[in-house]
Predict the structure.
Amino acid sequence: MTTFFLLPLPYLSLGLLALLFGAVFCSPRFPSFNRRRIALVVLGFSLVMFVLALLKIQVRSVTAESDPWLPCFSTDAIDGLPLVVFLFVAILAVCLAPRRDIRDRCLSGIFLLVTGTTCIYASNHLWVVNLGWWLTCVPFVGAFFGRTEDHKQTSIALIVSAILLTLSTIFLHASHWSNVANISQWSLFFLVMTVILRKGIFPFHSWTLRSFESGPLLPKALLFNSHLGALLVARAQSSGMSVLDHPSLEWLSILALVTALVTSLRGLIEKKPRRLMAFVCISQASFILSGLLATNAEGVMGGMLHWMVVTLASTALIGIVRILEVRVIDVADPTVPLGLAVRAPRLAVFFLISGLALVGLPGTMGYCAEDLLFHGVQDHHSVMGVALLLATAINAINLMRLYSVLFLGVLPKNVIEVPDALPRERWPLTALMMILIVGGLYPRWPIALRHDAVKSIPLRVNDLPHHEDGLH
Amino acid sequence: MNPSLLLFGLLGLPLASFLLWSCFWLLGFTWPEKIIGRTVKVVYGLMFLLFLTLCLQVYQNPQHAIEIRVGDWFQLNHYEYPLAFQLDYITMPFAGLTILLSGIVASFSVTYLHRDPGFLRFFLLLLLFSFGALLVFTASSLDLLIGGWELVGITSVLLIAFFQYRPEPVKNALKVFATYRLADLCILVAVFLAHQWYGSAEWSRFREIASHQDGHEIPATMFSLIAVLLVLAASGKSSQGPFCGWLARAMEGPTPSSAIFYGAISVHAGPYLLLRAAPVIHQSLTATILLFFIGSTTAVLATMIQRSCSDAKTSLAYASQTQLGIIFCEIALGWHTLALIHVVGHATVRAMQFLRSPSMLSDYHRQHSGAGGVLQATGKHYDALLPVKWQRKLYCFAMFRGFHEALWERILWRPLYALIRLLVKIERAPSRHPMKPNPSPPPSIVVAE
């Protein structure tokens, strides 16, 4: 079995090619009986390929492994696991998407988005990263997910972020291509701005919020959960760019914290489920940057684990809200609590578990992720640590508000029959819950999986005996 | 028998039952009430047997205490999350109460919740609560304690909203959850500060530092800050001081859950935390005074409010709060054994009172008919010693719950909402184009695919 992983097979190329084929075959020009099934097969194949690529580097105990066919793609400690998790949530999104969300060009759009994101993750070349970045803009600019007016802000934000990244790459290329540690000021500025814009960091968080407001939700979940801003920061750090040498990264960390607090507070007066969910997701996602930039092992590991938790849990939340929306019209803008737990108790439980995992319920992976993250951030800066705790407490309140609006209260008289989780929804959601719970009950497993990624990021050397950084 | 195996059995039984039932239910399996009821009774029976064996082992141990260290749950660099437990004279009464009273409540609820749509949900939450409470009482570090602490909190909130088809329980559950989260912030900050300053949040480490055994000079402010945070966290759990408003709201839940949570176990987690953290608290004069102040003021306020309550459960809730306030004062004065005895006595009596409260009217009539006629009220109360003018003023004060909620509104919520409104202005994103509903579904029922 081990020798199978060591075979020089082009896993990444095959996975990416499969995704491109998926984009073509799922377009409306190719009539097919069941596009969802085709999409799932293609995504499943890609997932297997990326898992094999990840196992290959783990079996060989190497830091990175280039693809034999396309050497500009490689798997390494930082991108390997997030790529697999992203493909898994893409499968989940396709499973959960209601029929109306995979009609026409929607599925092709999802495939383009996934292909672009995969390119960025798997690439070891900045120009290919740029290519992938532009590719992720195509489905929104090309109105694959509905009317252009609905995605105007999203498209603008994505295009501007792509332009900024291209500018950063040009400046980097012009100055010190080989060494990112000696990055020019302009290049760094554009890079930080790219991260701020793409990640939806304060004051540019409103486009993410708007993107959640209309149209099919699951492609937005994929866009949101690509976490390309966090990936750029992790990549920059692993290339030798340290927070200690570049104070602008410290500012990025502070802005992430401000985003976490502002969006959590804003959520307190929000009533529409989509917007409230968007606030919770944005707030929790901005913790990742604070963790990655904490310059100690606990913070970085916490950030890496939280990255996975946010990806998994927020996709489940978004998927469930969308499922409810297509079944009960009142979900879009409820005036009173809808009491759907009576008709859909399983969806209520899935929602509650994934939501509480997102805000760090003990026994889920979110708990250990947040525990490590808060320790790391508090060690880095005490006030920031307390502010993050405050933000997560408010997010938990917002989440319970959302839960009570959707699932508790009196069932409206017009809602007579609403199906609970269908088998195609129930099984993937159960699998996702199992990952969150098993990862929480046995956290050594996810920690071991991200160990090499944390090792590749430079950490602060502290000479206090019980706070000596660096991994054993 | 190995005590660690016994302890894992004790903790594992409710957790495994909860996880198994939840998974099967999520995948579409259901069971009749009879099977659920009998299984729960067997689980609590087994837990009680394991507890008795464990008690014997603790008693036979020369120190009357057992430390069980399994290793670390996870570890990174120098940060460790210890998986360590301790069984001693504080743990055993609390653990015993949890198992015994949860078992009694489970047995009571089989009949009480017969044919209720939330029958299975109630027992699942009860099992999760038992696991959480046992984790709180056996943990030998604050890290592990928080795990149980939050599980107890979330199960409590979900049980308050048990009758989800009524708007009031839902609203009150949310308010209780918000209060819990604010109070839990204190314990979380205390843990992180303890790790940052002392390198560990284990009780043994706190005791070492409190007695200056490790030779370090610990600044008094650090000690005070952690102690004050722990006092506030305990106040939140026990509905004391600034957090005293939530206990009456929690009465919306079913009576058995009120008995186990707000009469017996959950509210006594606060005194447990204080008893454990007593060495730290008593090192800080600020924390000790604060603890006494919180306990005494809440006791006075709650006893007044209790006298103005017109329904049985709310009256019992405020009576609980009064006793908890007195327990807080006892701990502040260093009377730990008395506090422990008080906790055990209060939890048992109050749980019984809560369980009897639905049949209070029937009890009343039975008492009178047993006495051979209507018993006349004596009319002799200490309140009568006060001038009538004062009696009226105090009655108004009690009727408005000590203006506690108005104070919170003025101090916290109004400024907070003003800040949020400012943020909205900055953001300039309050839907300029209101969200359009999805086009296709028909107005009423929608069964989709």
